[in-house]
């Protein structure tokens, strides 16, 4: 029900900027960005902000819609930079932001740069822009300066935590050592932080009681952790046609996924060694990727990961239970359904 | 006199973050960033914020030092991303931020990524981090929430304008059309904005009278324009040993510098055609670079550019004149000297 309003808020922010631009390329740039932002997305983060706000204030006011899209811009900022880092030209079957501009490059008659470099350059700046545009959501006249500043603080914190998560992930890929604690820390930051801050921003605007905030945080971070664990499973064992993502990427990139960590825990020394040996290759054949996949199966890694996810599911459910006295029933239900959906999703 | 205090403020902000980190890589990451930030820099932007504040309030309080370093972080954020875009591994003879991490990569035993990709990835995130860390400068307890929020607004605006400048520049490189107006607009955004906002942030904290603010803006933007015009000249005709920058980069990259635009204005049709032809090559020999340089000389492009810079110098001087009734003499003098220095600098 809120999704069209969220999309309208995203459009309006970008349309306003486009309207102010005089330079033709900047108009094209922001138009491509609008296109990219509106091409898809479940808008989970804005919906969480709105649900937190409505659930706490017991209202259904529209004034929270604009602030709710801030984190969605930030989310997209991280996707834009991630796709450059991971060299992914497509995301869910659609061109990545930087790749849109590699394609745009063909419009030029005079090609001093090559298309790929042009795309990367615009993509680096594109992430910066998305981040900066998102913060406009908190210069909001319907809320006090203090509440807006509070949100900006959360927004900064969210970006910082995502950055730390991505940095730890890049470092981990080059480390031989695997640790489930480090993995959980990494995904709490990389994926949990944005979800948590979406809720906290909604709660902050609703002037939520401080003593209940930690429960909202637990729910948010754990939702992110579960999302990422399932994402890891789908990233290797999902249906490419449904997820729109190749299922060999994580293995080839040597990502420290939940699957890999659990497999290393469960396999015997000999097979563990064999697995490390496979993963240390700079180029892997399709057969070798399949061998890794088979070792994951042999180690029952999927079930180990699901068990791990269930642990965080229980914690999140408990947190929701504690929020019941101060959050509307219908929003608690929304949070519960989302939690179930994230654990059980196949895409 | 303020430079050591500025460097201390930069160190403190990063030391505080380093102290909070537990992950070894994040500690290394922020330590490398601190190293990079403190390796050099004239601290012009913080000095401008401090001079504006002190000149207006007629005080010499230290509480403006911390907010003054915000734009310096932002400036470094843009340098980090620019060096990736321009593929410059060195800046003033020292490793660029991304290149520091290409080198750091050798520390890993298990190398899943290659060093260059690792460096670029960390560099993309490094620019993001520098931007976000810089904004902490405005969460300042010595100033009111309103004044801090005002600075955050300027900070966002500064980043947006730099981004627009860089985007226009990248677009221009691929355009055949040259225009002095577009060039001035581009450098006002790319270089002028940060200088202007440094002054406006100082003035805002000093609660400067609104009617005088436009003169401060004019001075700041023009200082940036002059800086960039001279930078263009030094970029092709400077002494590499003094500037620490190769003098063929701009020509090879086909940058729309002041020199190129003025040369195209002054040369006859035949030579103009020849110049365009030279520049449209994707690879240029040293001889061809020299031919371009000779055509610039023939067109008396250096003098045309200097004449252009003088026009902006006069405007900036007039603006300072108008600020005399409301800004301390000693700070006006500092602004005047800086203006002269920027016009006459050889490095």
How would you describe this structure in keywords?
Farnesyl Diphosphate Synthase; two-stranded antiparallel sheet; mainly alpha; 347 residues; 2 strands; homodimer; 2 domains
Textual characterization of the structure:
2 copies of one chain form a homodimer. Chain A is mainly alpha-helical and 347 residues long. Chain A has 2 domains: 162 residues, Farnesyl Diphosphate Synthase; 139 residues, Orthogonal Bundle (Farnesyl Diphosphate Synthase), CATH 1.10.600. Helices cover 74% and strands 1% of the residues of chain A. The first copy, chain A, contains 17 helices and 2 strands. Chain A has a two-stranded antiparallel sheet with strand order 1-2. The relative contact order of chain A is 0.10. The model of chain A has no long low-confidence stretch (mean pLDDT 95). At the A-B interface, helix 2, helix 5, helix 7 and helix 8 of A face helix 2, helix 5, helix 7 and helix 8 of B.
